[in-house]
Amino acid sequence: MSSSPVVVIGTGLAGLATANELVNKYNIPVTILEKASSIGGNSIKASSGINGASTETQRHFHIEDSPRLFEDDTVKSAKGKGVQALMGKLATDSPLAIEWLKNEFDLKLDLLSQLGGHSVARTHRSSGNLPPGFEIVSALSNNLKKLAETKPELVKIHLDSKVVDIQEKDNSVSAIVYENKDGEEHLITASNVVFCSGGFGFSKEMLKQYAPDLVDLPTTNGQQTTGDGQRLLQKLGADMIDMNQIQVHPTGFIDPSDRNSSWKFLAAEALRGLGGILLNPATGKRFVNELNTRDVVTEAVQKQCPQDDNRALLVMGENMYKDLKDNLDFYMFKKLVQKLTLSQVVSEYKLPITAAQLSQELQAYSSFATKADPFGRTVILNEFGTDVTPETTVFIGEVTPVVHFTMGGAKIDVKAQVIGKNDEPLLKGLYAAGEVSGGVHGANRLGGSSLLECVVFGRIAAESIANDR
């Protein structure tokens, strides 16, 4: 039985889930390496929620769902790419992931929204004033920080520590080499390492290599998201799959004070799931089912909206403010969303229609709660009402497609083991979870499945390590 710590690379939700499960359930020591100077990765910014099928929260709202239906939605969204066994595992373990977060970390996860590509509402978030990613990451990281102080023999956390090499011996992991912020190299002896290092959506170099047509798009990714893990795993001989499958999210906020910034705040999909609609500034009209999959909505924006700046208008009603008050207050504080009357909207955004015509457009959308939407949207929530006038107030922001998520990465199996090109585990003791891995999402990730992937496969990696020690 190995007594060396498990090395977890990365402190996004995948790394935090892996480490918490290892220490809390199996009492296995961990050393966590994070190249940034703070914990959380991109996970801390996730703002729509985490998926789960057949959960207690769904039962509370009388929503009928099943892991099989969730798997079917995932496979459909994946469009023939990825690994269906991993999609099945994601769906099957989803209620366990929600239960684990609620029971182990006292998270409510008591509210739901239905995002694009989902058959039912299954994306969980908590009532309260914290965004889902921040709330979940904070709960898991606080537990580990506490243990690092009280039980340093069980948990060690090294920030500003970039992994530069994985050493192997006899076809097994033997050590990890990392650099601190002063460029000094350190070696940790370890027989197990879990890559949870995230994607490569910030790396222009890797985007140029795998998806050159996306290089000029802005991104929602933090500057740490440069594919270091993918490069190391490729060098080791991992089977890198679907690397050219990169998700462009249709709605990144345009900051009016810095319109050309290459980094954008994400306009969470929950904003559309809970009632937000998209208008084409060139017509002042709706142009797409806002709850189609992200690739389809993105294509509609890019083909139909003004080509010079590729923007759409995200419009939300007063009723929705009650559901997402904290999100909208934050976006308004950042001046990404304004509260305006429809007359002001027409004037401010120079729409080619009158305020009365815009009123009719919003009123027509509201009527689709009782009759078919011509664009095929079936979830009509928080509609604008039947008495919309030019003086009706709405919440509105400009949005544009953004590089958001890299679906490809190192192929893993259902035990979270990294797979080599011979379809066998590459090295004994080598695991991956989260965005660094490939196969879970195929050609298009469903909203709410990134946080879920982190929890499901992080916990699986921990279980596989425990079973093997």
Automatic annotation (TrEMBL):
Superkingdom to which the source organism belongs: Eukaryota
EC number(s) from the headed UniProt entry: 1.3.1.6
EC top class named in words: oxidoreductase
Flavoprotein recorded as keyword: yes
tRNA processing found in the keyword field: no
Cofactor note: Binds 1 FAD per monomer.
Catalytic activity: succinate + NAD(+) = fumarate + NADH + H(+)
A Gene Ontology molecular function term of the record: fumarate reductase (NADH) activity
Chain ranges of the FAD-dependent oxidoreductase 2 FAD-binding domain: 6-451
Gene3D superfamilies named in the record: FAD/NAD(P)-binding domain, Succinate dehydrogenase/fumarate reductase flavoprotein, catalytic domain
Entry cofactors: FAD
Record Pfam families: FAD_binding_2 (PF00890)
Keywords: FAD, Flavoprotein, Oxidoreductase
Family: Belongs to the FAD-dependent oxidoreductase 2 family. FRD/SDH subfamily.
Function, in words: Irreversibly catalyzes the reduction of fumarate to succinate.
This protein's name: Fumarate reductase
Naturally occurring in which organism (per UniProt): Saccharomyces pastorianus
Name of the gene this protein is made from: FRD1_2
